[in-house]
Amino acid sequence: MRDFRDAKAMAQTLRDALKAKSVSLTHSESLEIVARTLGFHDWNVLAAAIQASQSMLASPRKSPTSTLGGGILLPVAPMRDVVFFPQTISPIWVGREKTRRAVEAAIAGDSRLFVVTQKRMDDDEPDFDALYSIGVTADIIHHMTMPNGTLRVKVSCAERAVITKAGGDDFLAAEAEPIPDIHEFDATAFALMREIFDAYQAYTRTPPPYALRRYSREPGVFADVVIHLMEAGIGKTQQVLETSNVVARLETILAWMKAGPPAP
């Protein structure tokens, strides 16, 4: 699957596609369009993110922040009202001091975070009891401090993971074990994808977006994209994140679609 590191190839694909329709676009213009489509401010910011990512891949990781029971402790970034999924690039606005210390520790270390949603949005100082146990591991690919002091961080989410041990003093930190998808490429998964695609317009009253077609060969990612587009709420979205069985994930989403959108 392509990600932000494939931006130049994506830009060339865009130019070729538009050229076939007699639409002229310069290479620079196509790079800017791809950058904005991927959620970056402009091509310069995306190019910096690509360079940073390549440096992380080419170089050994720095020492982890600390260890607990022989495992790596990842700084934890609690999210108030959003659930992050693997294989996505997402911004985080960090205002709380404890979360800022966690992010700064990650930047000083190997740039990895554990991102997890908190159970109550109005909890300003969540502890581990106030967090869901399943979130995602993520790499920080860009960060900057805004004029109002808020830290803006862009992360590339890697994989589902479950907290196995909690720690940290100045900030939350945890060991986390990856949760691999199962039954992702079963024939049943692809059949469910087709049903969801057909049900999408009736549920949302909008045509299926390009994003769903883009992941037509990746049932697990397809399910993750659909639940975000459904705007089903934190509870249901977290339930999908916690479902490692892709067939079960798709069945759950399809059942919600058939039940219809919640009353306003």
Which terms would index this structure?
single chain, 264 residues, alpha+beta, five-stranded mixed barrel, two-stranded antiparallel ribbon
Description:
This protein has 264 residues and is α+β, with helices and mostly antiparallel strands. It has 3 domains: 4-58, no CATH class; 67-178, Roll (Archaeosine Trna-guanine Transglycosylase, Chain: A, domain 4); 187-259. Helices cover 42% and strands 22% of the residues. It contains 9 helices and 8 strands. The strands form 2 sheets. The chain has a 5-stranded mixed beta barrel. Strands 1-2 form a two-stranded antiparallel ribbon. α1 crosses α2 (27-37) and α7 (219-230) runs antiparallel to α8. The two termini are 36 Å apart.
Rg measurement, Å: 20 Å
Overall pLDDT: 83
Give the tally of structural domains: 3
What's the CATH superfamily of the largest domain, by name? LON domain-like
Count of individual beta strands: 8
Main sheet attributes: strand count, strand direction, barrel closure: 5 strands, mixed, barrel
Reported CATH architecture of the largest domain: Roll
Task: Give a brief description.
This protein has 9 helices and 8 strands. With 264 residues, the protein is an alpha+beta fold.
Summarize the SSE layout with pairings:
Layout: H1 7-20, H2 27-37, H3 43-58, E1 67-68, E2 71-72, E3 74-79, E4 89-94, H4 97-108, E5 112-117, E6 134-145, E7 151-167, E8 173-178, H5 187-204, H6 210-214, H7 219-230, H8 234-241, H9 246-259
Parallel strand pairs: 3-5
Antiparallel strand pairs: 1-2, 3-8, 4-7, 5-6, 6-7, 7-8
Helix pairs in contact: 1-2, 5-7, 5-9, 7-8, 7-9
